């Protein structure tokens, strides 16, 4: 198990693809935690408990949604400060307990694949790859629109290169 999180050895394109799919599976508990947190926050804002959730009808939910939208529009910073200050430390700890291994496993996966393709310059290429991916993500989020799709396409081409390209290393150990 330890070898999956270490930044050494190499992996093939097939294993890279399988590990990437496993990263997607590893995000499911994180998504469940986020949805549970948001549900708890909204129920707290509505002033009801989860056991009273069955008593909510559509008109009350719509009324609450409109009031909440107005509250957020009036002062979004105050609203989100209130939400974050009313969140218990357990939510933050559980979020980090699932997020940190996910990021670590993902970075180790990319490092192992980049090591198999660019063995002599693996560290430089790994940091270059991470820098390019972060820059593409930030550019896409900042500008949006068509630039989002262009950045997404560039990231997809890089990913496909990492999956398809034959590495000069014959035997992979990672």
List its traits.
174 residues; mainly alpha; single chain
Describe this structure in words.
Helices cover 76% and strands 0% of the residues. The model has no long low-confidence stretch (mean pLDDT 85). It has one domain (9-164). The longest helix has 34 residues, at 13-46. The chain starts with 12 loop residues before the first helix and ends in a 10-residue tail after the last helix. It contains six helices and no strands. It is elongated. It has 174 residues and is mostly helical. Helix 4 (89-117) crosses helix 5 and helix 5 runs antiparallel to helix 6 (145-164).
The class by helix and strand makeup works out as mainly alpha
Q: Supply the number of helical segments.
A: 6
Q: What is the β-strand count? A: 0
Order of helices and strands: HHHHHH
What is the approximate shape? elongated
Could you give a short account of the major beta sheet?
none
Distance between the termini: 11 Å
- Helical content band: over 70%
> How many structurally independent domains?
1
Rg, rounded, reads 22 Å
**What's the oligomerization state?**
single chain
Poorly predicted regions are none
Percent of sequence in beta strands: under 5%
Overall pLDDT metric:
85
List the helices and strands and how they pair.
Layout: H1 13-46, H2 58-74, H3 76-85, H4 89-117, H5 122-143, H6 145-164
Helix pairs in contact: 1-4, 2-3, 4-5, 5-6
